[in-house]
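Same chain as my last thread, 302 residues:
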Amino acid sequence: MGTGESALDENFYAATRYEAPAEGFNLTHLYFVGTVGNLEHVDIEASVILGNDVTATERTIGHGKLHVEKEEETDRGYMGVPRMLKFDNPVYINPADTFYVVLKYPAGYKSSALMATKDGNIEPNRYMAHLKSLGGWVDIENLYDNAYSYGAFGYFMTCVEHEKGEPWIKLLNEQKEGVLEANASLPINFQINAKSAYFAKNNKATLVVKSNDPENATVNYHIYLDRNAAPAIEVPEGIVAANQGESTNVELNVSEPEDEAFSVSFEDSKAYTTVASYNEADGVTFENGVFSVPAGKQPGYT
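reply #2:
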């Protein structure tokens, strides 16, 4: 499955929807089978989107990237390679929450994600593909049902938990029920693990207290967690080409959502790139491959 010969300038996106088990799931890696064909020095990226809407990129809760130097061609062509992608950070999924894992394949090759027939009926929108020629995201099961009679189809994609995780808030009290005498109290103890929070802001949990009080039998205490937001990186989509013997300028930017001071470094293992300009007027400095950006400013690289 891929963009086809007519859209080689487009990235192909393949998505699978999952539901976390009753004990929750700590997503650390993604096992999948895919190909980059004859492309070299390219990346395959993965994003985790919370919920049932694959288009809701504002609910992205995880990211990972796998660099592919080169894929060996077989006597039957490029048939796909089993790969293991590690996410930047483990993504703890709360019990019974649904989520999509979206793979972004590099532009330039006609076929990317390998598929297989599946037993039984497939839930609507379980396996999705993004094809501009069809208007965006499409359910590939519906797509193939309308064209073929091979049965159910899906991607070779499996979520992997290499180590256990914990939710961002956990009740530690062993005693969760009993009798409180008049004027007595019971301490409530929580464990906070900010790394497991889905979002930078407005993470919400609710402590529910039930009693025999006839006027307030149930009382809800809402608990919120806000984290420092990570810098946002803006780069061009698709392939950036440079003609032989010529240079191409590529503009990129990094912004800090909370206007705090930050630093950015970049690496180029092939030494193909140089820094042409950056926002020196706003006090941005560049030394030993590291940009230092003052509070409230943006580096504005070229």
